[in-house]
Amino acid sequence: MTSTSDPRDLRAELGSLTTEAFRPDLAGIDRLPTLDIARLMNGEDATVAGAVAARLPQIAAAIDALAERMARGGRLVYAGAGTAGRLGVLDASECPPTFNTDPSRVVGLIAGGPQAVVTSVEGAEDSRELARADLEPLGLTPDDTVVGISASGRTPYAIGAVEYARSRGSLTIGLACNADSPLAAAAEHGVEIVVGPELLTGSTRLKAGTAQKLVLNMLSTITMIRLGKTYGNLMVDVRASNDKLRARSHRIVALATGAGDEEIERALAATDGEVKNAILTILADVDGPTAARLLAESDGHLRAALDSRT
Predict the structure, then answer these.
(1) For residues 193 and 211, is the Cβ–Cβ distance under 8 A?
(2) Does the keyword field hold Transmembrane (predicted)?
(3) What angle do CA 56, 66, 59 make, to 5 degrees?
């Protein structure tokens, strides 16, 4: 069902949002030389990291709750519309090659479906019911986490996703770029990154989009670190699906072990290309099956598997 709110009420609501605010000082930006516009834009972008830094305690608390549930087999589900939805889909799609996660473990939902990633689907963001319909087939459980993403913090699709997830007992995170947002209020963990008015009035694919990308990077990356998907700062669960990643896999094993090329190739061959297993065979001096067993006993944590051999 599409919202039937009075357009005047919506205009008033948007007018009250920081992300929609007009900046008179930039009213003549179209008359400036290109380099000056680039400097202005770069200066605006430089403020985003500080806005994220101001919310690091809330972000860390959300990550700890998320990682705890994913360690029990739960899933991470992003839900948003427009730019926010696309950023969620992007983050979800990069988890399998980066961390060797099953595609079903991190899911990106966008209002309007997959076609909305590349084309606008009019009205999709205005429906709470559409969010429920998109989430129902997933069979959410208390071990799952749903992250509603919306720059304005008022998008019905994102709010509807969070409300439905809470009704199923799932953990909820609301990521917005305005203070006192309905989305953050609806979620157990509200994260509001207030980046201020955009260079182009209301174009939240700019600073707000950058802020959302930074936070989503943290949610997925730090969660995967907590789940043992890295060894130090090495991506030991990387999936070698092409020549570049196969070369990266070899380099990661080299950095972790200091072994020579021939030993690394033997280890990778003995473990079917699994980087984490190959490292363990070298550092613990075990064969491939033993490495697999040790990692299974350590819930996939390489450091713990190594410690069990000392």
Answers:
(1) yes
(2) no
(3) 10
Sheet harboring 76-80: ordered strands across? 106-110, 76-80, 145-150, 171-176, 189-192
Q: Which of 227, 249, 206, 188 is nearest to 95 (CA)?
A: 227
204-258 pLDDT, tens digit per residue, is 999 999 999 999 999 999 999 999 999 999 999 987 778 898 999 999 999 999 9
Instruction: Give the pLDDT score at 1.
Output: 41
Per-residue confidence at 15, pLDDT binned at 50, 70, 90? low
Give the Å distances, CA to CA, from 84 to 56, 74, 158: 20, 22, 9
Between CA 87 and CA 73 the distance in angstroms is: 24
CB burial readout 274-310, b (16+ within 10 A) else e: bbbbbbbbbbbebebeebbebbeebebbbeebbeeee
Adjacent-strand bridge partners of 108: 78
Which residues does 127 contact at the CB level (< 8 Å), separation at least 6? 1, 2, 3, 111, 156, 157, 160
Contact 19, 205 (CB under 8 A): no
Looking up tokens 């608390």 gives 61
Q: Which percentage of the chain shows pLDDT scores above 90?
A: 86
Active-site amino acid positions: 94, 125
Phi, psi of 231, deg, nearest 5: -125, 105
198, 19 Cβ separation under 8 angstroms = yes
Contact yes or no for 95/220 (Cβ under 8 A) = yes
Question: Residue 79's beta-bridge partner residues?
Answer: 109, 148
Helix or strand (DSSP H, E) at 176: strand 171-176
Give residue-wise pLDDT tens across range 138-186.
999 999 999 999 999 999 999 999 999 999 999 999 999 999 999 999 9
